[in-house]
Specification:
- The chain contains 13 helices and 23 strands.
- With about 450 residues, the chain is α/β, with parallel strands linked by helices.
- The protein has four domains: about 120 residues, NAD(P)-binding Rossmann-like Domain (Rossmann fold, 3-Layer(aba) Sandwich); about 100 residues, Regulator of K+ conductance, C-terminal domain (Alpha-Beta Plaits); about 120 residues, Rossmann fold; about 90 residues, 2-Layer Sandwich (Alpha-Beta Plaits).
- The protein has a seven-stranded mixed beta sheet, with helices on both faces. A six-stranded parallel beta sheet has the order 15-14-13-16-17-18, sandwiched between helices.
- Helix 4 links the parallel strand 4 and strand 5.
- The model has no long low-confidence stretch (mean pLDDT about 90).
Length: about 450
């Protein structure tokens, strides 16, 4: 593919690094000469210094022949104009990132076809949706919907006491249509076999039919769904999160430092207690008895505030702490310091863009553990290698799990005797190194 990326911030650099590694032709655009020099030092891609929303610059970048133009500068308007201009120049597809809440309907993190732009995504709204799912779950660290949300992938951490520990996976008493799809141990993700066992501190990815995964998560963690949530930060993430859960069984308190913003939120959010205060003020946290809350989400735009507020909340005794961090490379450090869930708007943006880029036979792609693993949603076509052969005889590549088969409205976690039929949607989890082997299974036998 020929891809033009406008904006060489954290997201833009990550996207072009992955695209270049995958063998795509990439042009990187940024106004900053320093940013362009950094890209030239790090990646073997074409670069262009200039204003990314300028039709002349986009024309020079070759947008007329581009398969995809991605606009991810720090200015929403520049991204929207760049995507529109690229489309008018002849680009086949365009993606624009926005970060304010002005361009999205409430609760919508991705808009298709807005103003003629193929995809407009707001990673902050997507993060709010993710946290709302965690709040409704029972001890989950992450909840991902695939196959049109008919299947869920839930990440849990195994506590020191769990009935799922020290048993082979083949002997675990799991609900029907549920699998342990992957395990993360000491920072390394692997696809387990039936003889593997779970250990305290392992993070397990569980996959199964939507609607039953909350109970499955509880069987691993022993936790209950959150009934009290404290949010620090009334920006796009905090506002969207409070709105998502307002009116539910969750009691919500929102701390916002800026008085004018706090008053605005109090007027807009029925059923939410809004307090004008600093989330890093230990005395305030103690006065509001934050330690009695099940879930604490620090979602300001300031990483230092988020980390400090999260650590103070954990010290006060909060059940589960969630923090936003702008730089994905710091996520492991936050976890080591004791933060339960660490989310990055930039990583969410990058992953959604790459998921869209990589659509070939792949209908959807979700990255796990910063790319160590991938969840693939693929459609089996007539004549492909995977069709008609019992799964036990497919000789699946090492590091690959065929998790679910979707035929019409039927969702099946298959056994060895089951087989895939033409037209079925197949959900697989695989190590990144095994992806090409998986794609070969979905190619015609004649190729």
């Amino acid at each position: 593919m020929y891809v033009v990326v406008v904006g060489m911030g954290e997201v833009g650099r990550h996207v072009i690094a992955v695209l270049a590694r995958d063998g795509h032709d990439v042009v990187a655009i940024d106004q900053s000469g320093e940013a362009i020099t950094r890209v030239e030092d790090e990646q073997d891609v074409a670069t262009l210094s200039g204003f990314g929303a300028s039709p002349a610059v986009l024309k020079e970048a070759g947008c007329a022949k581009a398969d995809l133009v991605v606009a991810v500068t720090d200015q929403d308007e520049v991204n929207l104009i760049a995507a529109l201009a690229a489309r008018q120049l002849g680009a086949r597809r365009t993606i624009a990132r926005v970060q304010s809440g002005q361009y999205n309907e409430p609760g919508q993190g991705i808009l298709y076809g807005m103003l003629g732009i193929d995809v407009v995504m707001n990673p902050r709204v997507l993060l709010a949706q993710e946290i709302a799912k965690i709040a409704r779950s029972r001890g989950a660290l992450e909840v991902l919907g695939v196959a049109g949300n008919r299947v869920e992938l839930v990440q849990v951490e195994l506590p020191a006491v769990s009935k799922m520990l020290h048993k082979t996976l083949a002997n675990l008493s799991l609900p029907a249509e549920t699998l342990v799809a992957a395990v993360v141990r000491d920072g390394e993700l692997f696809v387990p076999g039936g003889a593997d066992v779970l250990l305290p501190g392992d993070r397990a990815y569980l996959i199964g039919r939507t609607g039953q995964m909350e109970a499955v998560a509880q069987s691993f963690t022993g936790a209950k769904a959150a009934t009290r949530l404290c949010i620090v930060g009334g920006g796009v993430v905090g506002h969207t999160l409070a709105r998502q859960l307002a009116g539910s069984d969750v009691e919500i308190m929102l701390l916002e430092k800026e008085r004018a913003r706090a008053e605005q939120l109090a007027a807009e959010l029925d059923g939410v207690t809004v307090i004008c205060g600093d989330g890093t003020d230990l005395r305030l946290l103690e006065e509001e008895q934050v330690g009695l809350y099940d879930l604490f989400a620090s979602v300001t735009a300031d990483d230092e505030v988020n980390l400090m507020a999260g650590l103070l909340a954990k010290r006060a005794g909060v059940g589960q702490a969630i923090c936003l961090v702008q730089r994905p490379e710091y996520m492991d450090i936050y976890r080591q310091l004791g933060i339960d869930v660490v989310l990055s708007p930039r990583l969410v943006a990058s992953e959604n863009i790459l998921r869209y880029v990589r659509q070939t036979e792949v209908q959807s792609l979700t990255l796990l553990e910063q790319g160590q693993g991938e969840v693939l949603e693929m459609v089996a076509s007539a004549g492909s290698r995977i069709v008609g052969t019992p799964i036990s005889r497919l000789h699946m590549p090492r590091g690959v799990l065929l998790a679910t088969i979707i035929s019409g409205e039927k969702v099946t976690v298959p056994s060895g005797s089951d087989s895939v039929h033409a037209g079925d949607t197949v959900i697989l989890l695989c190590l990144a190194s095994a992806r090409q082997a998986v794609e070969r299974l979905f190619r015609s036998r004649d190729l």
